[in-house]
Amino acid sequence: MQQGSFQFIKEGTSVDKLQMLEEKITKVIDRIRSLTEENEALKGTIAELKKEIQQREHEMNAMKQDFKSMESLKSNIEKLHGEREAVRSQVESLIKELESVEF
User: What is the DSSP letter of 103?
Assistant: First the structure.
């Protein structure tokens, strides 16, 4: 009888081992599923961030163009201020000459 009960314990142990192995495999499969879902979510996030980067780059290029235009306008304004001062100086000279002429 002891021999028969020993075999039962031995068989029970192998069944327990199979159940433990099955549980471990199930946990691994669940973890793989979880990681796969997380990976897909991260891929979506990366795609959104890439779109946002492209949009920001487009906005930045537009701002660079605006900045170049502003620099050009600033240069033109400075040139016009210089011309205005030259015209003002000429007008003041003409006024002084007219004032010095007696009628």
Answer: -
Q: What pLDDT, in 10s, does the model give residues 37-91? A: 999 999 999 999 999 999 999 999 999 999 999 999 999 999 999 999 999 999 9
* Direct distance between the N- and C-terminal alpha carbons of the chain, in angstroms, rounded to an integer: 151
Question: How is residue 40 annotated by DSSP?
Answer: H
pTM: 0.55
* Tokens describing residue 11: 């068989």
Cα–Cα distances in angstroms (integers) from residue 40 to residues 19, 32, 44, 82, 90, in the given order: 31, 12, 6, 63, 74
